[in-house]
Structure to design on (334 residues):
């Protein structure tokens, strides 16, 4: 402690000593200044300075010595004395709360997984009577009634299909099977499903596929096409929907173009947001705002770039740009 105390004040002590030595040196050189009285005064000054240091040392280090003694006592107490009952209660409470949170999280995950499985099972069960209903509708002779019933059946079918894919979306990576997929087959199958709706709204198709084969997952690509065609049909009437594909910079590009009501420019940046519906027609209660959101997520999982261009009152063009074959292989191998 003494050494530390002196080291902290080393510069001041050195200055004080050098000052006195300088005064003695000046008195030694100057014969007009008596040397002995100067030596006597310097001796007394150094003596008083030493006494001052001793006094200040005791006063300034008293507090720090008491702190050290207190720390030593605390260490001894911590080693020698066991935990107090209060500390044990707090420790046990923290451990119990942690375990409870872990169990709650595990139960929550199990509950969500169970709800998902139950809903998927219910959707698959509902599809069975829907299929039977469709067969019965096909046997009707009244064409007008048949058309109306088919349209309502189609609405239920599309809603169930959207719900099914929405539940599968978080686990889409486990559901993908990448293979050579025929675009023409997928597009014509989806148009066939939507045929009654298209006839009712007077919608035709102009299909020009320069590229007919892509590397993708057939089931999820069909879902993407279903959502795009559904949107085009919903907001179009008495017009043709153009579907064409071509190759650009080594990538396959597929475009779906309609002549419907189009999208307001202020809505264009938000159409892929979850739950967003058009601000142009808020009275459209049938819109769920989930179709394009799911389409965007599915496209990203398949590394498909999706772009939308639209003019209000003119129509909408949706462009799907498929990844290059080599790029897709590199991505899936990572």
């Amino acid at each position: 402690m003494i050494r530390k105390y002196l080291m902290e004040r080393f510069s001041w002590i050195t200055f004080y000593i050098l000052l006195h030595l300088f005064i003695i040196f000046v008195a030694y050189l100057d014969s007009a200044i008596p040397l002995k009285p100067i030596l006597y005064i310097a001796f007394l000054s150094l003596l008083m300075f030493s006494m001052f240091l001793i006094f200040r040392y005791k006063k300034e280090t008293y507090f720090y010595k008491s702190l050290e003694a207190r720390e030593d006592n605390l260490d001894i107490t911590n080693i020698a004395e066991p935990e107090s009952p209060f500390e044990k209660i707090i420790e046990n409470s923290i451990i119990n709360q942690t375990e409870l949170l872990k169990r709650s999280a595990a139960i929550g995950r199990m509950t969500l997984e169970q709800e998902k499985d139950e809903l998927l099972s219910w959707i698959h069960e509902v599809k069975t009577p829907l299929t039977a209903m469709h067969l019965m509708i096909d046997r009707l002779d009244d064409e007008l009634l048949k058309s109306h019933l088919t349209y309502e059946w189609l609405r239920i079918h599309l809603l169930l299909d959207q719900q099914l894919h929405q539940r599968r979306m978080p686990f889409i990576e486990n559901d993908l099977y990448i293979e050579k997929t025929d675009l023409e087959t997928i597009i014509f199958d989806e148009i066939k499903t939507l045929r009654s709706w298209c006839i009712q709204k007077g919608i035709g198709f102009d299909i020009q596929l320069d590229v007919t084969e892509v590397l993708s997952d057939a089931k999820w690509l069909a879902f993407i096409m279903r959502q795009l065609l559904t949107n085009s049909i919903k907001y179009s009437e008495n017009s043709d929907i153009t579907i064409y594909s071509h190759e650009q910079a080594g990538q396959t590009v597929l475009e779906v173009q309609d002549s419907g009501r189009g999208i307001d420019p202020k809505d264009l940046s938000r159409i892929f947001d979850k739950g967003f519906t058009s601000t142009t027609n808020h009275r459209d209660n049938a819109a769920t705002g989930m179709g394009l959101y799911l389409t965007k997520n599915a496209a990203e999982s398949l590394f498909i770039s999706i772009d939308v261009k639209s003019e209000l009152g003119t129509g909408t063009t949706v462009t799907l740009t498929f990844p290059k074959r080599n790029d897709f292989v590199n991505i899936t191998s990572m």
The chain has eleven helices and seven strands.
